[in-house]
Amino acid sequence: MVDKLNLKTEKKPISYKLSWVKKGNEVVVNQRCLVTFSIGQKYQDSQWCDVIPMDVCHILLGKPWQFDCKATHDGYKNTYTFIKDGTKEFNDVIPEEFPAGLPLMRDIQHCIDLIPGSTLLNKAHYRVSPLEYEELNRQVIELLKKGVIRESMSPCAVPALLAPKKDGT
Questions:
Q1: Tally of CB atoms within 10 A around 19
Q2: What's the half-sphere exposure (Cβ side, CA atoms, 13 Å) at 78?
Q3: What are the pLDDT digits (tens) for 88-143?
Q4: What InterPro entries does the database record attribute to this sequence (predicted)?
Q5: Are 57 and 1 in contact (CB under 8 A)?
Q6: First to last CA, the chain
Q7: Is residue 148 within 8 Å of 140, Cβ to Cβ?
Q8: Where are the alpha helices (DSSP H) in 13-156?
Q9: Per residue in 53-95, pLDDT tens?
């Protein structure tokens, strides 16, 4: 098939042997070619394929391809699902760069309406030692100054867990 399609081949960086293609004979795989293929009308890709002598012609998209395109296999339906360049489809609504901090305050503020006559549960909040409270307060003030968080409008107190991400935010 490679010859019929006039595909350009090149020597593989590392050759290997296959024994399951031809009974009793080992096949040395030392050539590869870049094949452009399509699945349906919308998906097109290029993949390096190993060249071996065969009586049939197929492209076997194995684990390396599945890994590269983050394909998900549904064993029951025997289908693969993946998104190729998904953000390109929505470039008109996805900004190039995201702003630092939280978005500006909007004209409409949302709130949860309570049932008339009901009251909030007034349970004691989670106790922390003075040292823990000091550290938590320091981190909250720092994050407020950076604009990463904003003061809550909720009348309820909740336990806090602050953990910085690997990028420092």
A1: 10
A2: 0
A3: 667 777 777 877 887 787 887 777 777 888 777 766 666 778 888 888 889 888 88
A4: DNA/RNA_pol_sf (IPR043502)
A5: yes
A6: 53
A7: no
A8: 63-68, 130-146
A9: 776 666 767 777 778 777 888 888 888 787 766 666 677 777 7
Side by side, the strands of the sheet bearing 43-51 are 9-22, 25-39, 43-51
- 33 vs 5, more confident: 33
The structure tokens listed for 146 are 């950076």
Instruction: Name the token pair of 1.
Output: 């098939």
CA dist., res. 4 & res. 51, Å (int): 13
Integer Cα distance of 90 and 161 in angstroms: 34
Evaluate if pTM is beyond 0.70. Answer: no
The rounded distance, in Å, linking the Cα atoms of 122 and 94 is: 42
Q: Quick one: CA dihedral 73, 77, 78, 83, positive or negative?
A: negative
Handedness of CA 87, 88, 90, 91 (dihedral sign): positive
Sign (positive or negative) of CA dihedral 114, 118, 120, 121: negative
